[in-house]
Design brief:
heterodimer, A: 359 residues, alpha/beta, D-Maltodextrin-Binding Protein, domain 2, 2 domains, 10-stranded mixed β-sheet, 14 helices, 10 strands, globular, B: 318 residues, mainly alpha, MetI-like fold
Chain lengths: 359, 318
Amino acid sequence: MKKLFALTLALAVMVGLLAGCAMDDDKREVNICSWGEYIDESLITQFEEETGIKVNYQTTDSNETLYNLLETTGWGGFDVIVPSDYMISQLIEEDRLAELNYDNIPNFEKIDDRFKNLPYDPENKYTVPYTWGTLGIIYNTQRVTEPVTWDLMFDAEHAGDVLMIRNSRDAFGLALMSLGYSVNTTDEEEIRQAYEKVAQANRDGVYQAFVMDEVFQLMESGSAAVATYYAGDYLSMLESNPDLAYVVPEEGSNWFVDAMCVLKNAKNKTEAEEWINFLCSTEASLANMDYIWYASPNTEALEKYPEYYEETYGEPLDMELYEIMAAPQEVLDRCEAYLVLPADIRALYNDLWTQMGIN
Amino acid sequence: MRNKLSWFSAPYVVWMALFTVAPVILVVIYAFTAVPPAEGFTLDNFLRMKEFAVVFARSFRLALIATFICLLIGYPLSYFLAKEGPSFQKIAMVLIMLPMWMNFLLRTYAWMSILENNGFLNRMFAALGIIDLGNLINGGLNSLCASLNEGVLAWLNARLGTALLLSTDRATDMTYFRMLYTQGAVVLGMVYNYLPFMILPIYSVIIKLDNSLLEAARDLGASSARVFRKVIFPLSLPGVLSGVTMVFVPSVSTFAISKMLGGGTKLLLGDLIELQFLGGAYNPYLGSAISLVMMVIVVVCMYVMNRFGEGEEQAVVL
């Protein structure tokens, strides 16, 4: 009798669960794929409460991983993605993105004109910028005393203490810059030289590891002394380790814009646009900037941030840090944005990247 | 076996067809398909395999080492555990299984902060003076080698016309031992994660050994060592073979462990395959070809190994 009771109970629970799932179907939802540590998560809850739309939030670690994830999910698994400039061009070129209805995104007006109609989306039909920033060298001032240039990333003096970034575009890009070439070069010889430079340093044991978000732990704990990563993430690390410093090398660097796009096959286009509009608002932009330390393209938020910081923390914002987050024009002038590379050069990048780890 | 109850196995047959047989067929089809824009049947994907010979060798070497260490730790443990009382066995089993109740990635991630240059172990070593001791020993070895170089070896070299020299540049200014992002760390990760899969099958075979066989062997005058060699070990072989399979196969194909503890400066097979799907290149054709070659090598290894167990009870294969 007891067993029969248990069985009935189990069945009842299961039916309840199934019913619960079925009910979820009517609920509005939006599927987002973004980068790790790239949003103030309380914003997700706030959006869910305000609109009743359920947010399914997933993260991945590089543009290349994102592309392959989209490919394996048949381009319909997500509604909103936040790729970087060069990947956006590629996606537009391949006709993967939906044109946005900017009437549903009134907050788009608040975006600074500097970040509209950029080369990856010249007529601004597909994208709304989310953050922007620079790529640079993060180093531990206790262990690196020499002037910091890209050569530091290949310096045998610091063998075993250097973290190389784990995506082909940035890794080969910084090698190209150290050689004085353009990050957008399509000259095979120049790219091979850049590859050889990184591969040689790898053979010489300069690199402790190839990392993406592991960089936080390794730099914060002082287990590595030099890394190439993004300005916003440097500011997060600085909160845990005051010995860290950030430099955009004199030779120049990459400046990037990550923008929100909606996939052509998206199932929840309206919800996606609502989400994008929500994140563009000045309040959300301020909260985000404060949390992830990446600069927002929202003019008002950029202007108000120092004030917001002082109100929140009761002390003035260090303007040097603000300029690392939102690089001034003279820094951007020596930086170059990534442009999409032709398919054969992308294939070359991929082949060389695979080659690198075989050594 | 055709009986009335055989349709009870239908769910599993469907499951296996969908999730084991179909994917393997897909892998085979992809492996023999040309990379677009070319199309049709091709062997090109396999012709590229020699570029990856180093990676194959590295993966099999590390997996073999890990399997061997697991066997070395696992066999004696299972053997002595089987001789203990039931309550002790229960507690020991819980302790062996306990780590497996936590997520595998989380456990491996924890090793990162233990092994880091500035991590838990290195801090402990520094506090205990072990790192200074290492520097001291290296310094001592350096001066010993230097004096050998000047004395005995100089004399020998002059006599024989050779140029033998001992290294005198061992590091004496270490502030940490490099543990994370080495191949040793990868092997450690494999042993740590897969050890239970070695212990459990061996233990379950040994505990079921017929005690009367052991008594008979002793009655016939065999020493304990001989009883172990001639009776216990051969009878436990099926367990050893399953254990070896269950450790070796996941070790050779792992990518999470090598990525987190190996640092990606030297790829393993799993990383290489992952890179074809999730790296910069989306090339499922090459990825499938590499997977297929790996599967074939593993199956051949297992087949050869199971020949050793021939005549004993059949071991669980794969």
